[in-house]
Amino acid sequence: MADESQPVVTGDLPVPDPASQQAVPTRLGPEVATPVGKTSGYAPGFIFYAVTLALALGALVLDAEASLPAILLSLLLCVGLTGLAIGWFILGAVAVKRTHLRIGLRAWARGLCIPVIVALCFELLATSAPLRLRFELSRTAFQQAASRVQAGQVVDGGNIGLFQIDRVLELPNGVWFEDLSLGFIDPCGLAYSPSGRPEITRLGTDLGGGWWIACEDF
Predict the structure, then answer these.
(1) What is the DSSP string of 107-153?
(2) What is the pTM of this model?
(3) CA dihedral 48, 120, 38, 45 (to 10 degrees)
(4) DSSP state of 80
(5) Distance between CA 132 and CA 145 in Å, rounded?
(6) Between 122 and 17, where is the model more confident?
(7) CA angle 134, 137, 140 (to 5 degrees)
(8) Angle, CA of 196, 201 and 206, to the nearest 5°
(9) Whole-Å CA distances, 151 to 8, 144, 146, 147, 154
């Protein structure tokens, strides 16, 4: 009776080349392996960034305007920024829970951009940086106008630098540039007083070089 068993193949079997096999890197969590490239999905998307930047820039520009409607609208935009910050916190909490902090560096960088933008915006608003920048761009024009007033010349209101001045008055210790758009109830404006805060004003904010943002106190 013929032997029907399969012939035995002798010799070494071919061994696959490890270099030809592309391994997919993963980060193993307690429950399931998560591909590295997938963790970036927990970072905020383009729309999230665009809305955050738009609100931040809008709040800064309106703060530089410093009028009552502009400040109120700026505060409203700050409320929107606060809501985005809360949304970022929730998104971050979900990412931490699902990935157990096993998130790529790129995703970390993208995620941290949101709180950095919001914190920087609030810091600039708290220090009145936009309004200060607006004045710094106008300082030379105001200095020239103050020199003319102190020299006995008449300086009418109008555009001085980036400000719309309603009237100009000479003070015992300086010059007063009234800008009604800066006030809430009392008239406010810019004062040049090298010797200190102008006597007719209150709530003075020192801009340096003898210049102040203040409101009249009649």
Answers:
(1) HHHHHHHHHHHHHHHHHHHHTTHHHHHHHHTTHHHHHHHHHHHHTT-
(2) 0.65
(3) 10
(4) H
(5) 18
(6) 122
(7) 130
(8) 45
(9) 115, 11, 9, 6, 9
